[in-house]
Amino acid sequence: MSKILIALGGNALGNNAKEQRELAKQAAVPIVDMIEQGHDVIITHGNGPQVGAINLAFGKYAEDKAEQDKMPFAESGAMSQGYIGYHLQNALREELANRGIIKSVASIVSQVVVDEHDPAFTAPTKPIGPFYSAEEAEELTAKTGDRYIEDSGRGFRKVIPSPTPIEIVEKDVMKDLVDSGHIVIGAGGGGIPVVRDQENGLRGVEAVIDKDLASECLAEALDVDFLFILTAVDRVAINFGKPGQQELDSISVEEAKQYIADEQFPPGSMLPKVEAAIKFVLSKKERKSIISSLERAKDAVLGRTGTVIYRD
Ligand SMILES: Nc1ncnc2c1ncn2[C@@H]1O[C@H](COP(=O)(O)OP(=O)(O)O)[C@@H](O)[C@H]1O
Ligand SMILES: NC(=O)OP(=O)(O)O
Questions:
Q1: Does 103 participate in catalysis according to the annotation?
Q2: Which pTM value belongs to this model?
Q3: What are the residue boundaries of the Aspartate/glutamate/uridylate kinase domain, all occurrences included (predicted)?
């Protein structure tokens, strides 16, 4: 049996609590299938829409108040871990109980160390929050000074810095829980971004870490065999959203690197998924990564869909 890390996309978890609760229930089915097959499973999740909404809501609340009433991104990320983890762990508990599987599930509030001098802090790339029209984005930029980019044909979104994850602070706790047979939800939203302050101090920073890169970091730390990246599309494509779009069944690391050089994958969406998959399969022989949709995760496990990234 294998150790599998399943990374769930934040954009595949809906736009409000009701949708997220339902989608978490759907996500629980293929995850529990894997548990039923005897695999050890670790779950991570994105938070792009959720962390953006939380930050925006507190920003509105603080509009007539002091600057200090705004919510920093580290705290917004921590809240998103609780909000999403709550739905996922209950959905998993229910699905496990329905199948008579006795296992406990816990979400771990997870911090991820980044480098204070990471160049990402001066070049925001991570799309978060709601989608806007071009006109709305222009107005918002004029009003707030925030940067907005077009996100994979779905509209314009605010972008914020997304530094490279270096270390998962709570990895040893997660490892002990997994080794004891528990199901762990960790590194949610890419983890709460922190920098090392003094010798033992950690300080939150204004960023949202990419959950695919953080998932890869965690997958290596927990010595995982499979990195399963689940999003809203069944397969990675070339010429995505353009004439000649072609979905890919499997790609070698060399092919993936060439597609990256050809700018086939946008930063902040498909690029970090492919980069995470490459890093993971290169980290140890026999490691494999699959990118597929949450909806068709079960078929992807059976090799009927998804894009497999393999070592040459
Ligand atoms: N080359 C590509 N192949 C497939 N999907 C792509 C590609 N380029 C961009 N995308 C878009 O990127 C999305 C995945 O990124 P995103 O929504 O940020 O992920 P997440 O599910 O982790 O939130 C896909 O649903 C698709 O709309
Ligand atoms: N933090 C993060 O990568 O979120 P998404 O998966 O929602 O983009």
A1: no
A2: 0.94
A3: 3-286
